[in-house]
Every structure is written in C-alpha cells, then in structure tokens.
Amino acid sequence: MNILFLSFTKNSLTVQEKKADQFLSEHNFPLSNVAFPGTFDALATQLKEKYPHTTGAVLQTSSSDFYTLYPQLDPLNASCQAIIKVLSEALNIPILTFEEADSADNLAEAFKEKVEQLTWTLDYFGYTPGKEEYSVESLLTVGNGFMGLRGTIPEMRLSKEHYPATYLAGLYNEEKSEVAGQIVENEDFVNTPDNQFISVQVEGTNEWLTLEKADLTLLHRNLDLKNGLFTSRLIIADSYQHQVEITALKIVNMAKMNNYSIKYMIKPMNFSKNITVKTMTDGSVYNFNVERYRNLTAKHFHITKLEAEKNKTMIRVQTNQSKIDVQQSSQISGDFFTSNDVKNSVNEETVEQTVTFYAEKNNTYTLEKHVQVMTSIAEKNWKTPVAFPVSFDTELTESAAAWKTLWEKSDIQVSGDLMSQKLLRIHTYHLLVSASPFSNNELDVSVTARGLHGEAYRGHIFWDEIFILPFYILHFPETAKQLLMYRYNRLGKAKENAVESNYEGAMFPWQSGLDGSEDTQKLHLNPLNGEWGEDHSVLQRHVSLAIAYNIWMYWNNTGDDRFIKEYGAEMLLEIANFWRSAATFDEKTDRYFIDKVMGPDEFHEAYPDSTESGLKNNAYTNLMVVWLFEELETILSLLNTQETAELFTKTGITQENLEEMNTIRKRLTIETNEDGIIAQYEGYFDLKEIDWEQAKATYGNIYRMDRILKAEGQSPDDYKVSKQADTLMLFYNLNKDKIDEILAELGYELPSDYLEKNLLYYLNRTSHGSTLSRIVHAQLAEEVAFHDLSWTLYQEALYSDYQDIQGGTTAEGIHTGVMAATIYVTLTTYAGIDIKKEKLSIKPNLPDHWTDMSFNLSQKGISYQLTISKTAVQVLANKDTTIIVNNQPYHLNTQEQQTINY
Fold first, then answer.
1. What digits encode the pLDDT tens for the residues 414-434?
2. 309 is catalytic
3. Which domain of life is it from (predicted)?
4. Among residues 602, 671, 682, 812, which one is catalytic?
C-alpha cells in the first residue's frame, strides 16, 4: 500500500511517498495566499493527479505549528481536523493524524479502522451562520420516522443564522397570506414548539453563552449513523473570558417514537464560580426555514396549555386551521441539583427553567433533558403513549438496538471506495429518519420530498414516491405497504379532485398533505427577480401513474395478493379510469390523445404564446398510461368472479370502460422524428434551441434555466430546455424491452439504437435543475454502455446533498427522492438486481474500482444475503428458491450459501 506523509511548512506542503518502509519519492507543493477550503481543494486535486494509487496518508504537522505558519487561517473553521476532512474526502482515502499513526501497532489496521469510522460518521468543524449552517443542520438531523430534530446544538434558537426545528410526520396547517395583491391559501408543514434550548451563564455577568454573542473557539458536531447519536462539543467564552467546554449528546429514540433526550455536560475551564444553567420550553417558534416563504403567514399553532412544576414542564398547542393537538412533556435531572432546586418562570409563550450551582474548575457537571412528543393524528399513540424516558443511556441503548435491526436489512457495503460507501450510508440513514418500521405502522403518512428535515415544498408528498418506495419495498415491505395505504386512505379525495376537474376515476394531487386535497400553490416566487408568477404545476397528473407504478412494484416484489384484493386493485382501477376519461379520440389521426398535462420536466407549462396552460401527448404520460392499462388486466385476473363484481359495483366502473381502455392502449399518440427521437410532447420539435455555452458563461449555475429565462422576460415554454428527465424517465421505470413492446403495440417503429439517440438528445437539452435528474440519466447511460458518463452522473447525484450542489437547497431539507434513487441505482444498475421479473435476476456490473459489494434484500417473502464481486455472486436465501444470474437459473437450498462464478 502506498502511503503519503504530509507536512506543512512555510509556503509549501512537503509530501513523502512510501510503500511499507520503502521510500519512493518526495515532492514540494508551493502554497500562496492560503485560504480555507479553496487552497486545500486545489491541493487535493494536485495530489490526486500525482499520486493516483495512494491508499492512505498521515498528516504530520501539529496544530500549534500550523497556525504559526498560516496565521491568516481561522482555527475555528480551518482546524487541522477540518483540513484533514477536506483532503480525505477529495482524495477518497483515510488520513491519520501524526498522533494516530504514532500510536498504531499496525498502520494498515489503523487505516482500516479509520475507514470504518469515516464511513459511519458525519463530522462538521466550525460554524458559518446562514444558509451553509442551515444545510449542515439538515444533514445532521436525528429522527425516527415520526419525529425529526434538525442538527442544531442546544445553545441555538430560531434565527437567520441557525434554525432548530421539531417536525412531526403528517403535521400540517393551512393559512391565508397576501401575495402580489392576492389572498392565497397554503398548507404548510408545521414547526412545533422547541424543547432543545439549553445555555449557561457565569456569575457576575448577564450573558448567556450563545453563538450570537459569545467568543467561540471550537465547535465540532458528529453524527453516528449506526445509532443516530448526535454529539456536539464547543469551547465558548463570555466577554469576561470565562471559558466553558460544553458537550451535548442528542438522540431521538428509534424504538420509542415519542421520545427524545439530551445529555448536556458543562466544564468550566479557567474559573470556579456559580453557574446558572437555563433550559426552555419554547412555544414562540414559527416557520422560518425557507427564505422565500418568510413573507407568508408563519405562525401555525396557538398554545392551549403551558405549565411547569419542579423539574417538569408541559406545553400543548393546537394548529389553527387543521385543529391538530401536539403535546410536549419534558423533565430535567442532573448530578448537581434536585427537582426542588429548579426555578420555573412561566411566560405567555415560554417556560424557562433555571438551576444555579457552584462549579469547580475542570469538573464536569451533567444535566439530562427528556422530552416526550405526541400528536392527536397518531390516535393510538395519543391515547396510550410509550413509557416516558428514564435515562439518556437507557434511551440510547434502546435506540441503538432498533437502529441495528434496520442496518442489518438495509446497509450496502462497498469495498474500494470510501466516499461512495459513506454517502450511501448517509442516504440510507436519512431515509430511515424520514420513515421507519418502528413508527410508521402507527401513522397515516407518507415520505415528504424533504424528509423530516426542512420546510421546502411545504413538507408535501409528491411523485418523488416513485423514487422512494423501492427502498422500502426491497428492505421493509410492511413499511412500503403503510406508505401505499396513505394514498388509499385519500382515494375518496382523489375521486373528488377528478370530478372538480371534469374527469372520472381518481386524480391524485400533485402536492398532497394532510387529507389528499390538491395543495399545489397557485403562485410561485422567482428569486432571481423577486416576482410572483402563476404556477401551473398542478397539471402534473402523472403523479397518479407514480402511485399506480408503486402499487404494481410492491405487489410484483412481495406477491401480496391480499393487498391487491383489498386495496390495490381498487386504486389501480380508479386511476386507470381517470386516464380513460382524460383520453380523447381524434378522427383525423384515428388515434387518441391526452392533453392539458405537464410532464416530469416541469419547465414547460404551455405552448408558446398560448393563453391556456397544459401540453398535449406528453410521451412519458402516454406510454405509462399504456403500461397501466396492460398491467391492470393482469391485476384484475387475480380476483375471482365475486371479487370482480364487488369491485365494479364499488367503483361504478363497467366492462365497457375496460374495453375502451383496451382500445386506447393500442391507439394512443406519441410524436417521433426520422432519427427515432421521441418528442417530449407534441410540438416539442418546433421549439427554439438554447445557446448553452453562452448561458453557462453568463450565469454559471444554469440548473434553473426556467427562472433565468423568466427573469430575462422570456419563457422556457419557447425552448428545448428540460429541468430533468422526462421522456427518458420511461426507461428508469421500465426496461427497454417493455418500452419496445409498448411502442410495437401502438404501431411505432424506431431504429434499434433509439435509446442511445434519445439519451444524447435530451442530455444536451437538460439543465439538471432537479437532483433526481442525474441519477436517472446515470442509469440510462450505463444501460447503453456509456460507463464514464454514468459514473460521473452517479457521483454527482451521490454528492448532491452532501455538497449542496444546488447552492442552498439542502438548507431547506434533504432530498429524499435522490437519496433513495442512488441506493436503488446502486443495486439495480451496478449490482445488476432486477426485481421486476418473476424470479430475482442478477447481471453484475460493478464499477471498475469497486472490489465487491454486499447487501440484503427481500423479494416475494424470501430474504437474500448477497455479495457481488467481479467474478462471482455469493448468495444465501432463507427459503428454497431459484434465481437467475446472467440469464442462467440456479437453485438455492434454504440457508445454504452458494457461490456462482461467471
């Protein structure tokens, strides 16, 4: 193994390369105008080019030496650990400090342990208030599927600099606001009361140690992905130079949905004096996470009860319009006070609890705060809550055990790529924070587009479910079923939505929240020019197709016929009937068309110069409708005569309706050209082209070309520009063979290489304004053997939230869709798993620098343990079964590991 030894000297970095004890080379990299992180990013690029085969490094410079050499660097944000993090992640290798390397008996083993640590933890050093801090807080969120707490430290309160928040799944409220002279109603995901604030004050001062006013010399936050433990350590001083080290630990108990706990440790570093510690129950909070929403009504609840007694507090609030009750009960304890020592101050919206004690220099004093959160929409739990927390250590032990069971089912282990391994675990962690088997069986909710991490998209549920559900289908099918039941429970509202828009069947809303009403906003703010414009995204009717697809995926992978008979067939039939009613026969073409829709692209809302919104014959929509009509036939065949009759009676759908669907599926329209390009929608080929190079030169970030064009007084409706995959989404959902069948049934004949041509055509016209765009294109690029392109897009998708590549969107919550999609593509594209077939099918396709990957999955009631390398598949199944590897069948015996070479 090649190891680099890094040493910073005045104006240069000295690098020695060694293999075992053999010296290989030495090189100096000159440094000037040193700045963090730019200088170290640039250094990493140079090191990567010069030492492509390095497996690890050791940083030999000590902290004291380093800041003497580079006094322009801020020790808070550019600490040695922060620099190591930048270099390690950019080089994709573990880096040890000199102390770590010196104390190691075996350097190779030390690097291995470092990799294990790095791939299971998330670390942030320093503090940059504002949008960057907001993003860090999103990524450090702890939760359990019911509750999410953003990754703030206890000393933070709501402000533009940082944003503590407590989110509860399914908690929405609707309020009116005045926008551009209009009164609009918006349903929002509610930020509930905050019980996390804790701070200290030293005797003789009137200063509470908070980040806004005190002198901060160290802040390190760590999230342990294995057990959901958040740890912060800060060294902070008031204006009298009283320096205090504070360590805080925080968990949301994965095993008990209502509970979270904080352990708060105080250590005076240079004094012995009285210290007062204060903690709050704060009902004054409001929604503030998303900057563009801040002019809207932000207070969504009122306090109905607020009380305190000794070491306990209780706050109960009710949302203003939705009338949902939320109750938070708290209790504090510690090794330096009793309940009788606690002083309570009950104010109009807050309770302040204080304890004053004498603190000896260098002694550590520990306070624990336990909070139980309940909401009336989780009815069973509201009436019979789980046991109140007893101690932090007990809660942590329970939660860690629950996390262990989740990781055993969902972890993907990748060899040979530190950062891909780390990011896959970060994504898995945040999906389990957003919905988990331990909480969701008590809830009537689905996974929001931004998890339980932020307020973007108002916490609504979108078509992102089409990317999210496969994660749960593969690993936690019971949770997937619960998420589908969220839609079934709102089927009645979907039917009302259809009637209101003059359709039949069920038209699910583009944005769904509490009750399944259409909650899409009518106005949208363009942050580039500060203007509000009409929002037509409600026309993305393909959300119903996403729901239908997920129902089919769940059934196809689990074989749960009972779900189909009781719920699934009804939903599919109602959705299919909606699309039947949306199709119109055109006598001139002798085909059917579907109009008044928007595709997944989202940039195109209407035709150029049209006074009406909506497009005609969107290819993604039309071909997915054909797919639905085909699969409906298979689904209905599962029902016996009586079940079928009951279903038709319940839905009012007739045999004649089914016959019309059968006719439509063979005569629906798409538009193609002579090169085999499938038009995104009818008339797409007539649009103007964009000068992409000029746009990049002018604007740099062109992800949101729609906003750029509108700010220039133009319209994206006039141009061949897409936010994300639209036509190409067909090949993400269905394989090419299935698309070929559909095109043949419709009577369209395209050249054999039409997928490659369509991929390149639309890639050249896509701005990737959605993080989902890259992962869809990555899968398709791999399918047509564009391996380098696939890997580049896959990596961009993996890093998209971690590096906040869209310039601040992570601040408003993580992107659950892309996080789930990266996991799905890792399994389907690189491991080669196909769960759409009757039997588990595998065509291994590991990236060049991955040695192997191991994972578990569930299909049709069988649990598989798989390890895939470049030459073999190692598999263990818990039941007798047959799998297909590279198109060859292999029989597996129960609990008998088999190695299949290829």
1. 999 999 999 999 999 999 999
2. no
3. Bacteria
4. 602
